[in-house]
Design goal:
Layout (H helix, E strand, L loop, with lengths): L2 E3 L5 H9 L9 E5 L16 E5 L14 E4 L15 E4 L15 E4 L12 E7 L13 E6 L15 E4 L10 E4 L3 H13 L12 E5 L15
Parallel strand pairs: 1-2, 2-3, 3-4, 4-5, 5-6, 6-7, 7-8, 8-9
Antiparallel strand pairs: 9-11, 10-11
Length: 229
């Protein structure tokens, strides 16, 4: 089990070693100590390995992740799991702005709160936030799910496309073209699956959530909606 101390070796050396891993590598579990808020730790991974980071990370940790599991035993800076393709990123603390931004797939779990623009322009990722999220979350979100056990800030889902938003707590305000929608059986099942994937099966009932989605009035220009563009 390789271990890497970022206080005694450069971050570039760690990422270079992780990028060199082959799909059939036997070095499948890595431990990283001394992150001390460094940026882009474990970014660009492309192998089915797990990387466990002991401490707080800076910007873009696990960005562009593909196949790997990245566990952060601390807080994460801006853009954690940004542009993720697949795999799992789990933050056991809080996350700053733009968590999961533009991500195409995979699962992002945040045990604490997430800052503004969580899931901005998400394109297929599933995000589960056990705390609350900040303003403008899911802005221009195109696909995937954002599940929030706490509250949502202002302008949730502004200019939303087809992503599905599930919020258990209060929503301060909805963004342009975002509306509350009926929670049908298929949505309850989908939400139950996402909660189970996040290790919350049996702990939280899907019936406690409300669903939000696009009203689809901004898909095509109409002069009556000009003020919302």
């Amino acid at each position: 089990m390789p271990s890497f101390d970022l206080r005694s070796a450069p971050l570039r050396e760690l990422n270079r070693a992780l990028h060199a891993l082959r799909p059939d590598t036997n070095e499948t579990h890595w431990t990283v100590t001394g992150p001390d808020g460094r940026h882009a730790i474990a970014a660009g991974l492309d192998a089915p390995v797990s990387v466990e980071i002991e401490g707080n990370v800076g910007y873009y940790c696990a960005g562009m992740n593909k196949l790997a599991t990245v566990l952060v035993n601390g807080n994460a800076g801006v853009g954690v799991a940004e542009n993720m393709i697949s795999g799992l990123v789990h933050v056991r603390g809080d996350a700053s702005q733009s968590a999961g931004a533009t991500a195409h797939g995979g699962l992002l779990i945040i045990d604490g709160n997430a800052g503004a623009r969580c899931g901005i322009s998400m394109k297929g990722v599933d995000i589960v936030v056990k705390g609350s999220i900040g303003h403008m979350s899911a802005f221009m979100a195109q696909a995937g799910t954002l599940t929030v056990l706490g509250d949502a800030g202002e302008a949730l889902g502004d200019s939303l496309y087809e992503a599905k938003l599930y919020v258990r707590g209060s929503v301060k305000s909805l963004g342009a073209d975002c509306v509350e929608k009926e929670m049908r059986d298929e949505h309850l099942q989908e939400l139950a699956d996402k909660l189970a994937a996040a290790g919350l099966a049996g702990e939280v009932s899907p019936s406690e959530f409300r669903r939000y989605g696009s009203a689809r009035t901004l898909y095509h220009f109409h002069v009556d909606n000009a003020g919302a563009y």
